[in-house]
Design a protein that fits this description.
2 domains; UDP_GlcNAc_AcTrfase_non-rep; Trimer_LpxA-like_sf; UDP-3-O-(3-hydroxymyristoyl)glucosamine N-acyltransferase; UDP N-Acetylglucosamine Acyltransferase, domain 1; Udp-n-acetylmuramoylalanyl-d-glutamate--2,6- Diaminopimelate Ligase, Chain: A, domain 1; alpha/beta; globular; 10-stranded mixed β-sheet
């Protein structure tokens, strides 16, 4: 998430009441998760395993729970609980607003777009031209829909990310301040759920088609002309390149990349990166031809045992 204006390091530190390392006037322009940070962003880290990754990332402000030496050109925010303070910043810069509040921005709807009865459009939603939004669709705050998009009944865009930290008293939610971006010529089936990014964007690329009952997790990015069949579940922070086909009841783990033009056959479980053009099947998914040979061999085992 980029802020509407540049802020000073000392002012950000005052918002969350923490120490800082760096010039008072050090510029802060946004806040993001580590996989989408750019210079000017705040990134948070609260586990020693990820200190180096955060400190060496493109983020120039690191919200951290240990006093360390700041890399050249970067600043630190020293907090006893970075997860909590990242949430405080989200509440300050992207607070939840009830739709009826007068000080919020109404949706923008393009020429020729049809919004069917009982569809809900949140604050600052933008919808392009010649779209069809069917009944009982929910498009939550700050979602952006392109031109010539069809969204079928019961679909929810912009629900919060499934992201929690375990604490002694239970699970603490990381607040979402990102968006869902749907590019031109996309069709989304009925009863799909597409979560917004925690701080970045969940993106459905140009010309992609989603069947009914597809779930896409936070910050996942689909390329162009991706085809996804029913009951597929895609975790957060997945990258799916152009022209990928994913068939029914596939499950995909977070942080994996599916290469251009690959195909995932039905009821497969994907836990690792997939090379461009590969065809995978099974759980865990592997080369489809090899998997089918394995299954054929297994079917022959009873006769083999009987004859021996």
């Amino acid at each position: 998430m980029k802020f509407s204006q540049t802020h000073r390091l000392k002012d950000i530190a005052a918002l969350i009441d923490c120490e800082y390392v760096g010039d008072d006037q050090f510029p802060v322009t946004g806040m993001n998760e580590i996989h989408v940070v750019t210079p000017g962003d705040i990134v948070f880290v609260d586990h020693p395993k990820y200190y180096d990754k955060a400190l060496q990332s493109d983020a120039t402000i690191v919200l951290i729970n240990k006093k360390v030496e700041a890399p050249a050109g970067k600043a630190l925010l020293i907090s006893d609980d970075p997860f909590r303070d990242f949430n405080k910043l989200t509440q300050h810069f992207a607070p939840f607003h009830a739709f009826a509040k007068a000080n919020t921005n109404p949706p923008i709807v393009g020429k020729g777009t049809v919004i069917q009865p009982n569809a809900f459009l949140g604050n600052e939603v933008v919808i392009g031209e010649n779209c069809i939004i069917h009944s009982n669709v929910s498009i939550n705050d700050r979602c952006v829909i392109g031109n010539n998009v069809i969204i079928h009944s019961g679909t929810v865009l912009g629900a919060d990310a499934f992201y929690y930290k375990r604490r002694p008293e239970g699970y603490d939610k990381l607040l979402s301040n990102g968006r869902v971006i749907v590019e031109d010529h996309v069709e989304i089936g009925a009863a799909c759920t597409i979560d917004r990014g925690v701080s970045g964007d969940t993106t459905i690329g140009y010309g992609s088609k989603l069947d009914n009952q597809v779930h896409i997790g936070h910050d996942t990015v689909l390329g162009k002309n991706v085809l996804i069949a029913s009951q597929t579940g895609i975790s957060g922070c997945v990258v799916i390149e152009d022209d990928v086909k994913i068939w029914g009841q596939v499950g995909i783990r977070s942080d994996v990349r599916l290469g251009k033009g690959c195909e995932i056959m039905a009821q497969s479980g994907v836990s690792k990166d997939v090379k461009p053009g590969d065809v995978l099947f099974g759980s865990p998914a592997s080369n489809a031809k090899e998997k089918f040979r394995e299954l054929a061999a297994i079917r022959m085992l009873p006769n083999f045992i009987k004859n021996n």
